[in-house]
Amino acid sequence: MYEVKNCIDAGSEYCPCHLAKTGECIICSQLSGKSFCDCKNWKGTCILQEYHRNGNKPKSQRRTYNGTVIEKVYEDSGILKLKIKSSISLIKGLKRLGSFVFLRSESSQEFYDCPISILKVDEEEEAIVVAIEIRGIKTKTIEGINEKEDILIRGPFWNGIFGVKKLSELSNDKVIVMGRGIGIAPLIPVLKDLLRRNNKVFLILDSGEFKKDIFDGELSFFQGERGHIKVFDNGELSKELNECLLDLINTQGYSHIHISGPDILAYNVTKEYKNSLTLSCSNNAKMCCGEGVCGSCSSRYSGHIVKRLCKVQCEPNNLFEGRRLI
Ligand code: SF4
Ligand code: FES
What we know:
- It contains nine helices and 19 strands.
- It is α+β, with helices and mostly antiparallel strands.
- Among the domains are: 63-157, Translation factors (Elongation Factor Tu (Ef-tu), domain 3); 161-284, 3-Layer(aba) Sandwich (Rossmann fold), CATH 3.40.50.80.
- The longest helix has 13 residues, at 184-196.
- Iron/sulfur cluster binds at residues 7, 9-10, 15-17, 19-20, 25-28, 47, 311.
């Protein structure tokens, strides 16, 4: 029952980070208050040594890049799609599964930074495509940016998917990919990645409160089987979804499910199907700094455990088990 807990940034150019300096490192025992080496999850580099080599201070963290909006279209009323051109070094860093950025307008302050998942990376045009659900003050401010105007992008960040290691190891497997509402946008790079590795994919889509064919244009490359299913019924998994999943698991041999939608969907599927499917799901934590400092993404668990979900990488089972909701 040992929980494998990872840090998405461990061993990267951004590690060691501020958490090492304050004795809160997610992986290194000596940089989290212990006096001996108890590294259960070797990442190919000694974080303590890196910290000493760097003069006992954290490395510089992600920078904010300038970008230009080169295309602005509405996918549906309330969902804005932006194509943004920016530095190639940022664009290349966003090719990893689970990548996201923080966006804000040039005229707003840093606390307007809004975390947005990547829908598409276009290396030739040195651009990314993102889809934004217009909801509150941050997204409305971004909506105010027009074509050919500048936008600020902080990144690259990578912890947009829990269970990403398992997901990126799947090949020649049978995988169910399920998306609901705006969650359909970040499942598109996942789908492309799974198909590249020769997986057979069954796609389940529920557009939620949006029109039924949302993101159909972006999904036109997908020729496999798909079902448009209402996934919820009175807050529980619908009968139609359960029947579909049971058929895919028991009759057709599907063995993994990736869920890109609200936590309640991932939680219910985890509860019902954790013994018959391996799982991965989108990270829906509310993020502000993305660097493990501000605490807005923190979740509390029994045993006085706090996980900063912008950095902690864990399996969906361990994401919901023992989580305190109040
Ligand atoms: S928390 Fe992560 S990024 Fe920060 S020092 Fe530890 S392993 Fe490195
Ligand atoms: S978003 Fe600030 S600590 Fe995670």
